[in-house]
Amino acid sequence: MKKIEAIIRKTKFEEVKKALKEINIEFFSYWDVRGIGKTHEARIYRGIAYDTSTIERTLLTIVVRDKNLDKTIKCILETAKTGEIGDGKIFVSELKEAFRIRTGEQGDESLFIKGEEE
After folding, report:
1. CATH topology classification for 2-111
2. Domain residues of the chain, as ranges?
3. What are 4-51's pLDDT values in tens digits?
4. 111 contact partners, CB below 8 Å, separation of at least 6
5. Do the beta carbons of residue 12 and residue 75 sit within 8 Å?
6. 3 touches 61 (CB < 8 A)
7. 3 state SS of 46
8. DSSP state string for 85-111
9. Is residue 30 within 8 Å of residue 1, measured between CB atoms?
10. Are the C-beta atoms of 80 and 87 separated by less than 8 Å?
């Protein structure tokens, strides 16, 4: 099992969510987050300078079985990309174990409903 953490532009969230659903990745968590990136500039609006070094993004956390890792990453890369600085990052880490609280299932079986496996 793998845990994918993707930091994407807030403007791309709905598009990424729809694309993930199309490849049958229907469960994930997300948060609105703020971070600091490489781009540091001040923007002036109505005579007031605003610091834009703090960047608002969306953080997706997706746990997938190993067989779904590549298609999930490809989906996020293709959908979240604008080609400009600040498109985001994807991090992948190994998960030791997972449990479904309701049934006590563990491992890969805790990540899908039997009979709905692709």
Report:
1. Alpha-Beta Plaits (3.30.70)
2. 2-111
3. 999 999 999 999 999 999 999 989 999 999 887 666 556 666 777 666
4. 1, 63, 64, 65, 98
5. no
6. yes
7. coil
8. TT-EEEEEEE----B-TTT--BGGGGG
9. no
10. yes
